[in-house]
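dumping this here before i forget
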Amino acid sequence: MQKTLTFTLNDSQVDEFYKYFQSIGTLTSNTNSYVQWSFKGPNWTVLMYTSGKFVVQTSDVNFAEEINNKILSGDDFKPHIGSDEVGKGDYFGPLVICACYINEISLKKVKDYGIMDSKNLTDEKMMNIGKKLVKDLEYEVKIINPREYASLNEEFKNISIVLSKVHVEVISELFERVGDDVEFVVIDQFSKSQKRLNDEYSLSVPLKQFHHAESDVAVAAASIIARYFFLLEFKKMKEKYNLKFPLGATHVIKFGRNFYKKYGMEGLRDVAKVSFRTTEKIINTF
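structure:
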């Protein structure tokens, strides 16, 4: 099974890994102007992008683990902030954005928790790891409840603008506390265009944004912490209404109709992102 890992490398690591892959693989040509260099081996391909993004594609689990360990344990690791959001595609529950700071000391604490590739962790594992991360790490989190989400969506008419503003807000607040040795910031890219976030961002350290950035240790930690708080909010909703709210946005119609029938539109506004088209399918049956 093909596995894809994404990392952020600094200039020193770029040079180091170029020499390493040159010794074990074959340099390949690439027509993508954003690719700085690429190498190919028996069952792997690596691509180094000009943005600092480094992508590993391999079917060899041992090779993937080797590269992961090389990057995480390398002497050239730089303290940085990672940011991610959870709940953007969920009809019920809040939108949660988290920024997380990782330095050499905290890296040693978290790399054994199994946080990498966080998108593949179960919610149970997310909760268990999340409890540890909120004790061990410096982070900033923003929980946007459904009513606030609706208000922001009405004000800006575009969720990407909202995400840009809130990501920068939590990153800036965290940077004020730990910014002395932060080398750069990484965000899991949430929009096709990087311009919106770049327009909002004004910190003195470089901003790097790309898709699948959760393979960066700080972004992975931010993702898990955001999920942790997201699931805690679901627990509160369950306790308040004595109902188990469904995750996602696919299998929510039947539940939503039953909830709307009992609590009406005002009740729905408390628990759901009513700007989703899903709302029309729920209320149009009455």
